[in-house]
């Protein structure tokens, strides 16, 4: 029992460490993207930024977001096993967040967290190896990083990523059969998929499905998806504003950044909150996004561009229901968080 408690404490500390090092990248990326996209115009291919200066700012923001997941994975592993684990976990976090292998599979922040933990425990094991003194000096800078990256990288590409890719293909097939009479159910599913991994493979599967339907002139599923992408960050932002005792000062500051990200439809703004408290945050944002998506589908909301948030309101059919659906979904998530998330003092006492 004590060993189990130690493992859980180690993991909790690791996730908190990963989040704290990731936060600056999230804030920089989110604020720069929000400012840049706010100056753009909605087109068939998404938000188009016309100013060269704002495009440069957008690229800086995108770089912040690209660094976010490797930092999370790297510092989860660093917390568990020290410096030798940092580089392999950052590399594998980057790999998890980008398409790789013959199926070009991406597992997003959930895959990166898994790889961070795997690297941490693998490197801990490597540190127990009995090696000659001459080799011991190069273990942390050469042997451990190379062996860890190779072994776990191959395991990820050939074992972990394969079933995930198969599951994504199955999901697209199921969604493709759910048009027409199943509109509300389809909205629920698209909304839930959008929130469950916030920019990861399940979210991207929903995106791919809605884009495919857009090419056929069917815009309602995209409406549901674009309502849902805004709900997780908006819900977390509002929750930090009204339930201040449930969040650290760091979280409350992040809530401001999450608000901007929600307004421009960047779901990833909720990731730091989910990593720190997955069992309460994920159900809340999944249910809220599902309800928002279902309301959008039920009321015929259509988003005519592949982007989300209130920033695209001018190119939405059914503007009132677009806003109402987003607001209702957000408030549902906020309410769930209010009743399930304990105050910081209670959490420390636990």
Automatic annotation (TrEMBL):
InterPro entries the record matches: Bacterial_PTS_Sugar_Transport, PTS_EIIC, PTS_EIIC_2, PTS_IIC_fruc
Keyword terms, alphabetized: Cell membrane, Membrane, Phosphotransferase system, Sugar transport, Transmembrane, Transmembrane helix, Transport
Domain of life, source organism: Bacteria
Membrane topology: Multi-pass membrane protein
Residue ranges annotated for the PTS EIIC type-2 domain, each copy included: 11-350
Main location: membrane
Official protein name in the record: PTS fructose transporter subunit IIC
One BP annotation, GO: phosphoenolpyruvate-dependent sugar phosphotransferase system
Entry GO CC: plasma membrane
PROSITE patterns according to UniProt: PTS_EIIC_TYPE_2
Single GO MF annotation: protein-N(PI)-phosphohistidine-sugar phosphotransferase activity
Pfam families xrefs: PTS_EIIC
Record field: transmembrane: 21-40, 60-78, 107-126, 138-161, 181-202, 254-274, 281-300, 320-339
Localization annotation: Cell inner membrane
């Amino acid at each position: 029992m004590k060993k189990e408690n130690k493992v859980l404490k180690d993991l909790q500390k690791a996730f908190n460490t990963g989040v704290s090092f990731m936060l600056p990248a999230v804030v920089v990326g989110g604020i720069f993207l929000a400012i840049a996209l706010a100056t753009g115009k909605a087109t068939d291919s998404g938000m188009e930024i016309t100013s060269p200066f704002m495009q440069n700012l957008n690229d800086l923001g995108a770089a912040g977001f690209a660094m976010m997941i490797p930092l999370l994975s790297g510092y989860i592993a660093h917390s568990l096993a020290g410096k030798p684990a940092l580089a392999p976990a950052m590399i594998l976090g980057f790999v998890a967040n980008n398409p790789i292998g013959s199926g070009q599979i991406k597992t997003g922040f959930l895959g990166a967290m898994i790889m961070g933990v795997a690297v941490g425990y693998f490197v801990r094991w490597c540190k127990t190896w009995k090696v000659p003194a001459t080799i011991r000096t190069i273990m942390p800078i050469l042997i451990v990083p190379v062996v860890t990256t190779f072994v776990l990288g191959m395991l990820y590409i050939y074992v972990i990523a394969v079933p995930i890719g198969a599951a994504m293909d199955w999901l697209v097939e199921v969604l493709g059969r759910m048009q027409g009479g199943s509109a509300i159910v389809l909205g629920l599913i698209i909304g839930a998929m959008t929130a469950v991994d916030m920019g990861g493979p399940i979210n991207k599967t929903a995106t791919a499905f809605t884009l495919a339907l857009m090419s056929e002139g069917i815009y309602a599923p995209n409406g549901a998806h674009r309502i849902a992408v805004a709900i997780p960050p908006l819900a977390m932002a509002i929750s930090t504003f009204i339930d201040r005792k449930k969040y650290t000062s760091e979280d409350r500051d992040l809530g401001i950044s999450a608000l901007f990200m929600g307004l421009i439809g960047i779901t990833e703004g909720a990731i730091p909150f989910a990593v720190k408290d997955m069992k309460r945050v994920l159900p809340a944002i999944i249910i809220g996004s599902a309800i928002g998506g279902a309301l959008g589908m039920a009321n015929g909301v259509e988003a005519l561009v592949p982007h989300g948030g209130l920033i695209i309101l001018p190119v939405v059919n059914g503007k009132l229901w677009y806003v109402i659906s987003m607001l209702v979904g957000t408030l549902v998530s906020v309410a769930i968080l209010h009743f399930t998330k304990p105050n910081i003092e209670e959490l420390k006492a636990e």
